[in-house]
Design brief:
single chain, mainly alpha
Length: 62
């Protein structure tokens, strides 16, 4: 098996690091809106499931 030179590993790691930094700096409205929608959907599903599981069909005794 032929191994690439160590410089190839260094360049690959550096390229990945630069891509991650570029993505972390972007605060586009679409990205923020996507996270907000995911948070709202998660909160809505949890609240709906809670209400469904704690529902009572018969009224409490007097």
């Amino acid at each position: 098996m032929i191994h690439p030179p160590p410089e190839a590993f260094v360049r690959a790691v550096e390229a990945v690091r630069l891509r991650r930094e570029a993505l972390s700096r972007t605060r586009s409205p679409g990205r923020i809106l996507g996270w907000a929608a995911a948070a709202g959907l998660t909160l809505g599903l949890h609240a709906g499931l809670y209400l469904l599981l704690t529902r009572r069909d018969d009224p409490p005794p007097a």
